[in-house]
Design a protein that fits this description.
Layout (H helix, E strand, L loop, with lengths): L1 H18 L13 H11 L2 H26 L10 H18 L1 H6 L1 E3 L4 E3 L5 H36 L3 H9 L1
Antiparallel strand pairs: 1-2
Helix pairs in contact: 1-3, 3-4, 3-6
C-alpha cells in the first residue's frame, strides 16, 4: 500500500509542478522550434495529463486493495504483495505515459492565438481521443470505485462488530 500511496503522491506533485508553466508566455521563443518544444514539454500540459491519468489508475488500485482487505481479509496477505504491486504500478505509469505520447510529440505552438494546440492529421482523432479520455479518467473509474466502495460499505454495515456481539451476549 505505501508504494501505491507514494505513486499517487508523485502524480499530485507532477500536477503541482507543471501547472505553473501553463500560463507562461512564449516571449523569447516565438517563431522558433523552441516554442514547439516548450509547448510540448512544459506549457501544453502533457505531464499534467500523464499525472492525472496515473492518479485515476492509482485511485482505482487503492479501491481494489481496500476491497480485498475488507471483503477477503484472510486472503489479503497473499493478494497484492510487493512484487505484484510493483508490476501493477509500472504498468499504470507506462499506460499513462504511452497514452500521452501524442501530447508530447504532436503539440505545437500557434503564433496567431499564442497558445498550444494539437494538429491532428484527421480531425476525428482528436474527438475520439477526447471521448476515450473521458471514459478512462471519469466514467469507468467512478463506476469501478463506486461498486467497490459500495461493496465495502455493505460488508461493514451488515456484519456485527465484535463489541456489539459481546454486548448482546452479556444481556
Amino acid at each position: 500500500m505505501p508504494y501505491v500511496c507514494n505513486s499517487f503522491a508523485l502524480t499530485n506533485k507532477i500536477f503541482i509542478f507543471f501547472h505553473r508553466f501553463l500560463d507562461d508566455p512564449f516571449k523569447n521563443y516565438q517563431g522558433t522550434t523552441g516554442a514547439d518544444v516548450i509547448c510540448s514539454m512544459l506549457t501544453g500540459g502533457s505531464f499534467i495529463w500523464t499525472g492525472i491519468l496515473a492518479s485515476m489508475l492509482f485511485l482505482v488500485l487503492i479501491a481494489v486493495e481496500r476491497h480485498c482487505a475488507v471483503l477477503h481479509p484472510l486472503q489479503h496477505k497473499t493478494g497484492l504483495v510487493t512484487k505484484k504491486l510493483n508490476v501493477i504500478i509500472v504498468v499504470c505509469w507506462t499506460y499513462a505515459i504511452l497514452w500521452n505520447v501524442p501530447s508530447f510529440s504532436v503539440r505545437r505552438y500557434n503564433e496567431k492565438t499564442g497558445s498550444c494546440f494539437l494538429p491532428w492529421p484527421i480531425p476525428y482523432l482528436g474527438q475520439a481521443r477526447a471521448v476515450y479520455w473521458v471514459f478512462t479518467t471519469a466514467v469507468v473509474p467512478v463506476i469501478i470505485m463506486g461498486y467497490l466502495y459500495t461493496q465495502i460499505i455493505r460488508q461493514l454495515w451488515s456484519t456485527k462488530q465484535p463489541a456489539s456481539v459481546s454486548y448482546e451476549k452479556a444481556r
